[in-house]
Amino acid sequence: MSRRPFVYGLMAMVLALAWSSPASGAPASRHNDPQPHRGGAEYHVTVSGRTYACSSGFAVRRVEDGKRAMTTAGHCPSAVSGLETTSGEFRFGTFVKAVDNEKVDAALISGTRVKPQVYAPTLWTDGGPPGTPVARRVLGKADGPVVGQSVCVSGKVTKLVCGIEVKSLTDGESCEDDPVEICTRGLVRAEKPNVNIVHEGDSGAPVFVPIDTEIDGHKVYGAMLVGGGPTGSEPGAPEDIVTFHSVKQVECALKARVLTTAEAESGDTTPPPHRPDCDPAPEGG
Q1: Helix, strand, coil in percent for the chain, rounding step 5
Q2: Once rounded to an integer, what is the mean pLDDT over residues 36-65?
Q3: Separation CA 74–CA 103 (nearest Å)
């Protein structure tokens, strides 16, 4: 679905990224994403006979039970919980929470007891300039970006786009036309002049700052998350503007906390605490 933007130990890490083998032999990719599922992957959901394609965001742990889940945009499933999603030939999960209103455009996908799924603190980042890594590990997070900061978005359509400058933390606005117009306000707004940042189908993708480091003498391509849920542009709308929620907004709205590589490797399943600094927000589902 789409929206239009307005206002103008190393081994443990390797094992954590291992995939199941595609049954058909098709290669794993952001368009055919097996477990453990990554952010920036394509997934599909069918509503009333119509199939929509959006992008996954980033892995989190739910405050209520510590269970892993994946974020995305709330308008992708039209705020309908309980819908099944797939990525290529793979089951991706079930919508367990979806909010789409004036303050929140975010959703959670998770596995069920009958159909369990695993989500990894990893982002698809292929599709950028030559030499771009296929994926990046989520090494950290920030509550949000700062004005003037350069960030990257990695969605299923336009793939990796970096060098996007944050212009405002609050005046971004995104509106949906189908089935009725809903405008989510108070979003981060970022721009990259004359560049198509996101398009229809990129909604839900992660926003991050690249972090390259070394662990045990090996280069690690990492990411610091700063936001998620960028909006795809409608025909005729500015394609060089992107609006998105900050990490804090996503964590507060979905009652979840970002899952980093270190936290995933720790094996801790204790439910994370809810953020004490969240503003009251309307619920949806």
Answers
A1: 5, 45, 50
A2: 94
A3: 11
CB 105, CB 254: distance < 8 Å: no
Q: How many CB atoms lie within 10 A of CB 252?
A: 20
Using CA of residue 155, residue 105, residue 71, residue 251, what is the dihedral sign? Answer: positive
CA-to-CA separations, 1 to 206, 207, 262, in angstroms, rounded: 16, 18, 33
Omega of the bond leading into 206 within 30 degrees of 0 (cis) = no
Sequence-distant (6+) residues with CB within 8 A of 126 are 29, 30, 132, 133, 134, 135, 159, 160
Name the H helices within the chain: 10-16, 247-254, 261-266
Section 207-227 average pLDDT: 94
Q: What is the DSSP letter of 29?
A: B
Distance CA 55, CA 200 (A): 10
In the numeric block, the tokens 């929470």 are attached to: 97
- b (16+ CB within 10 A) / e for 196-234: ebbbbbbbbbbbbbbeeeeeeeeebbbbbbbbbbbbbbb
Partnered with residue 178 across adjacent β-strands are none
Confidence of residue 232 (pLDDT cuts 50, 70, 90): low
Q: Which of 271, 243, 269 is nearest to 255 (CA)?
A: 271
Q: Which residues contact 133 (CB under 8 A, 6 or more apart)?
A: 125, 126, 221
Q: Encode pLDDT of 2-45 as tens digits.
A: 565 533 333 233 323 334 444 556 789 999 999 999 999 999 99
Residue 153: both structure tokens together: 């978005």
CA gyration radius for the chain? 17
Whether the CB-CB separation of 285 and 228 falls below 8 Å is answered with: no
